[in-house]
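Narrative summary of target 7.
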Amino acid sequence: MRRPSTWLAGLCLGLCALTASAQTPAPLDTVASVDVPRYMGTWYEIAKYPNWFQKKCASSTSAQYSLQADGQVQVLNRCKTANGEWSEALGMARQIGRANSPRLQVRFAPAWLSFIPMVWGNYWIIDLDPQYQWVVVSEPSREYLWILSRTPELPAATYQGLLGKLAANGFDLQRIQLSPP
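Modeled conformation, tokenized:
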């Protein structure tokens, strides 16, 4: 016969496991495909999860994507700092997998460090307007998140709809920070 303390401990462990699995979001899905040439151009940051590498950005955050002859994508991230100066970071992106893959990796480290896997960050397109007017980007652990638009402002109804989708996909809406224009 089992002792009550053993049974109770087993029950507690089982409940903890169920609770943990209920709180773990499903694996992150991406859109089915991306037309990379159509994705090129300027995207304005509408909102994001705050992160360490954008702490100096006070406003006007944008990314300019340019397709290179070798198939990689040049990325120029820009923002204004609190004192009104522009801050820029130049990087490269590469698709992972097929030619229309929504999974990319981005690096802002020097090219000679490209062989080190840790310099590449995941850039997964998880939602994309059919007209390529807005996009939501994250990565498998959901630690980073950006909502981008072709224009510096996004219609309120569109933004609210995206927040609803993000919540349904396990993103913490409390972490999202609107980006000043």
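The first helix runs from residue 4 to 23.
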